[in-house]
Amino acid sequence: MENISFKNTTDGCTIYAAGDIDLSNSHELRKTILAALKSNDTVFVDLSGVNYIDSSGIASLVEGLQFSKSNSKKFILSKPSAQVTAIMELARLDQVFTII
Hints:
Blueprint: E1 3-9, E2 12-21, H1 26-39, E3 42-53, H2 55-70, E4 74-78, H3 82-90, E5 98-99
Parallel strand pairs: 2-3, 3-4, 4-5
Antiparallel strand pairs: 1-2
């Protein structure tokens, strides 16, 4: 993954991911998502800059979703790239996540 950053806003927190999300760096995304969810009621993950995501990256997103549901938080994926959208649709995760 080339870059992971976040910005706190009045709506909550937005995490920006860019590049490839794979086994070598998905743990960084997972840690960032969980930390953001612990301190914010709403977390957006902007996936517009993600070129590739593998199963470990998807697992990090799923873990964030599970944590948010068990702690009454909102977890929203925003602007997924065409690559991410295709994988989410293939795995039918587009029906599980809130995607805007």
